[in-house]
Amino acid sequence: MANHDILINWAPQETRVAIVENGAVQELHIERTLERGLVGNIYLGKVARVLPGMQSAFIDVGLERAAFLHVADLHPTNGGRADGTTPVPIERQVFEGQTLMVQVIKDPIGTKGARLSTQVSIAGRMLVFLPQDNHIGISQKIGSPEVREQLRARMHALVGESGGGFILRTNAEEATDDELADDVAYLRKAWNTVRERAIGSPPGTLLHQDLNLAERVLRDLANEATQSIRIDSKLQHDALRDFGAVYSPGAAAKLEHYKGERPIFDLFNIEEDIARALARRVELKSGGYLIIDQTEALTTIDVNTGGFVGARNFDDTIFKTNLEAALAIGRQLRLRNLGGIIIVDFIDMTREEHRAAVLAEFRKQLARDRTKTTVSGFTQLGLVEMTRKRTRESLAHMLCEPCPTCEGRGQIKTARSVCYDVLREILREARQFNPKEFRVIASPAVVEMLLDEENAHLAGLSEFIGKPISLSAESAMNPEQYDIVLM
């Protein structure tokens, strides 16, 4: 991973974290105090409903919507698997009204409630504690077999017969025995606190909450490639320094209090990057551009050459645009936190070596992603299909809501279309009612068109129905709204 800086903009209502590499924002994390993520939280839940057909159960943990527990996420101590492969049916493991200790493994997204597991884990700086298990696991990113065996032997010596399982995270590879022992002690203490809180507490009680975003920067985001961690709050800087001194001394040593007069996010034009990350169109330096459309089911990314004519021939123009797009798309996926199914429509390339080079560049950019991605080759239609694990709401869903004017369609009727809707509605009502006059109340643009370009049609309708039609402009109305008042 290339060297990068981490900027933290803290306010009582919101924490924003930007990872900046070569002056460009690569990742953006936002946590709002009133909308804080739930992943990692441990609750005492109550089984509200068991659904044998879906092999799932709805669990009330005190949230707005009931959370969801699938049979695959039940720990063997809850009934588990009969033969190590086939799950025992959920209706034989849990029952309505039962109290369970559960952990959130996926935040509520859209209309879906949180996803739960009874396989509880607590994350530390270098280790993840599995209090219900006894095995030692090692991160797949630690690839050397020799190092893996050494780490496993060291952990067995540290843990002894005291029980509980551990997974060693990537940053445990260089850890000393003292550092690992400190993490073990911290995690056992945290688990004991959870168990003590669970005794006598009613269902819906929050037993354990994961670290806030600023603390997770030190635990999860900072690594050897991090050059500095700058935060603009003295209070939070001191709190993070104390937290880091105990749990992440290496990351805490890179912590700086930003005292500049300009807002910290203005240093690298991050506010502008956020605004661009919410736009549908992304400009490429060559003159090409991307069109990114997010739907409920999937995200589509269309690559276009735009005004780029810099290469020697058309094939090279397309190839260079697609190469630049591959780099830009990898960054946009991280920046916007796009998840689920993603379809990329690169510009059609006739030469197989160009297609292979673009796909190789695209995979190279995706390899930098902290979030799991899978990508296939080009389909028969020349599309690249990929998936990116959904871990939290996308940036657009977090910061935006559907437009109340177009209701999320992304477009509105023209003033002329609304004029014709008005004329049809007047004719419809004239056949049912017999008022002295029809008064149209609409947006200024619609009224202006009825008085100008559509005046002849309005006068013709008035003559046809034998009633006067008056107009009234209402600036508060959106372009598609109108009322017809019978006078």
Helical content class: 25-40%
Q: What is the highest CATH level, the class of the largest domain?
A: Mainly Beta
Give the strand order, joined by hyphens, for the main sheet: 16-17-18-19-21-20
For the termini, the CA-CA separation is 72 Å
Structural class: alpha+beta
Strand portion: 25-35%
Mean pLDDT: 89
Number of helices: 12
| Number of E strands | 24
- Over all CA atoms, what is the radius of gyration? 29 Å
- Count up the domains: 4
Biggest pleated-sheet summary = 6 strands, mixed
CATH superfamily of the largest domain: Nucleic acid-binding proteins
Shape: globular
CATH architecture of the largest domain: Beta Barrel
Q: Unreliable stretches, pLDDT < 50, 5 or more residues?
A: none
Textual characterization of the structure:
The chain has 487 residues and is of the alpha+beta class. It has four domains: 4-36 and 212-268, eRF1 domain 2 (Nucleotidyltransferase, domain 5); 42-208, OB fold (Dihydrolipoamide Acetyltransferase, E2P), CATH 2.40.50; 278-396; 415-486, Hypothetical Protein Ychn, Chain: A, CATH 3.40.1260.20. It is 31% helix and 26% strand. The protein has helices at 145-159, 177-198, 213-221, 234-247, 249-252, 270-277, 314-336, 352-366, 395-399, 415-430, 444-451, 455-465, and strands at residues 4-11, 14-21, 24-32, 42-51, 56-60, 67-70, 99-106, 115-117, 122-123, 127-130, 136-138, 165-168, 206-208, 226-231, 255-257, 281-283, 289-294, 298-304, 340-345, 373-378, 384-388, 438-442, 469-473, 482-486. The strands form five sheets. Strands 16-17-18-19-21-20 form a six-stranded mixed beta sheet, with helices on one face. Strands 3-2-1-14-15 form a five-stranded mixed beta sheet, sandwiched between helices. It has a five-stranded mixed β-barrel with strand order 4-5-6-8-7. Helix 3 crosses helix 4 (234-247). The chain is globular. The relative contact order is 0.09.
